[in-house]
Amino acid sequence: MNATPDNQRTIAGLTEHYGSAYKWYVTATVMLGTFSVVLAATIINVAVPAIMGRFDVAQDEVHWLATGFLAAMTVGMLLNAWAVARFGSRHGFALAMAGFIVASLIGGFSGDFGVLVGARALQGLTAGMIQPHALIAIFQVFPVHRRGQAMGIYGMGVILGPAIAPALGGVLVDGISWRATFFVVLPACALAMGMAWRFLPGRSENRRVTLDWAGLVLLSVSLVALLWAVASLHRRGVFDPLLDAALALGLVLAVVFVLWQRRCREPLLDLRLFRRPGFAGGFALSIVMGAGLFASTYLAPLYFQQSAGMSASAAGMMLVPAGLAMAFVFPLAGHLSDRMPIAWMVTIGLGFFIASMVLLSLSQTSTAIAWLVIWTLLGRLGVGLMMPPITTASLTVLSEDQLDRGSGIINFGRQIGGALGVNLCAVLAQYASDFVRMRHPEMDAATVFEAGFDYAFMALAILFVIAFWPLSRLARARRALAS
């Protein structure tokens, strides 16, 4: 590939070179890159039972494939602004994509579960650096009145990844191997990296951002310690010295991180925004929504395979209607957010998700497949109805100059909620299954697994019932602003 001349390293130079189509080249580049990492994030869920069998690990261990990815992705998102300023959009995106490719290769060829988890964490770190490029790049090349259209097209392409991932992953697992779920994204990743090198702008010499390395280290170590402590509670017990030390370390570092963010000149998270009435409620809703979205996405394929006895490909096909339903309702929810009270939409979404989790928790191994598909679809409709209005409502309580920082905090909350949700639900499902197995050793494996999933689904339902409280605070703040 030929090097790009100096006069084509800026947006103006690239626009002059490629003409009016340049903005769509940029959109296609970031869409392809994000599609690749989103597909990789979700496609592995249907392969989890096969990985459990290959490495002989239980649910309270294998969840690190999802938890590690989500936690590392949170850190990667916080690194993105610094990386773009330090290396430029072109080099930052290409380097992150190269790292993602390396991580995918390591994961696909790994023969040790610890290496596999490390590869997933590296995937998450680089994915977190890739995804925010979309908003930055689109805002750079589109005028204000065209950004909505561009984001809509970009969003539809990105949502397609989770919609097709279960079916594609199931076919790969049954037809080839779970390892194929790591390799299938590589062609799209390589193409996105090449497009980034050609179409994204280079570094601006006048733009410098200082990274809060101390805050990043405090947050990373705190997250790892807390997540490990929760995941190890079932196996080690509450009085295990190492577990207690990790829990104490995680909590202490979390407090130190908050104190440091209040003093730091350029913090990772601007905690002053929580003084705005209603913003804390929006942040809490984002945590709950992330927990529900990622935990249910993780649990559903496991449930269909371990409890309902389906193959990986059949379980993947079961999730396709739910994915397509979410892809359909997501842009509709964004459209309706400007035309009806946001609290109503979120309430409807919460109701759908709660109903989905309750019905799944009440299902039996003999429940008809059609009902399982419908109940799973209800949950995805709920998430699709909630996500756009929660983000919009949370940001509308802020001033114009706080929007970029507020958006970062809301995204942070959703990712942290996802990591915690997967972690806690996996541990709860394993604990409940082991408890039932001890009490009723005559039960078959499918029924034992069913009991564990029932507790996890019901826990998510209870969490979403609690979410009505922060919703009321957010709605009250919006009414006060409107009056």
Outline the structure in words.
This protein has helices at 11-18, 22-43, 48-55, 59-62, 64-109, 113-130, 133-141, 144-175, 180-183, 186-199, 213-236, 241-263, 279-306, 312-336, 342-362, 369-396, 403-439, 445-466, 468-482. The chain is an all-alpha fold. The longest helix has 46 residues, at 64-109.
Keywords:
single chain; mainly alpha; 19 helices; globular
Quick structural gist:
Helix content is 80%, strand content 0%. The protein is an all-alpha fold. It is globular and about 70 Å long.
SSE layout and pairing:
Blueprint: H1 11-18, H2 22-43, H3 48-55, H4 59-62, H5 64-109, H6 113-130, H7 133-141, H8 144-175, H9 180-183, H10 186-199, H11 213-236, H12 241-263, H13 279-306, H14 312-336, H15 342-362, H16 369-396, H17 403-439, H18 445-466, H19 468-482
Helix pairs in contact: 2-6, 2-7, 2-8, 2-10, 5-6, 5-10, 5-11, 5-17, 7-8, 8-14, 11-12, 11-17, 13-14, 13-16, 13-17, 13-18, 13-19, 14-16, 15-16, 15-18, 15-19, 16-17, 17-18
Q: How far apart are the termini?
A: 58 Å
> Which runs of at least 5 residues are low in confidence (pLDDT < 50)?
none
Q: What's the helix-strand series?
A: HHHHHHHHHHHHHHHHHHH
Multimeric state: single chain
How many beta strands in the DSSP annotation?
A: 0
C-alpha-based Rg, rounded: 22 Å
**Largest sheet entry:** none
Tell me the strand percentage band: under 5%
What general outline do the C-alpha atoms trace? globular
> Helicity range of the residues?
over 70%
Overall pLDDT score: 82
How does the helix and strand content classify structurally?
mainly alpha
Number of helices: 19
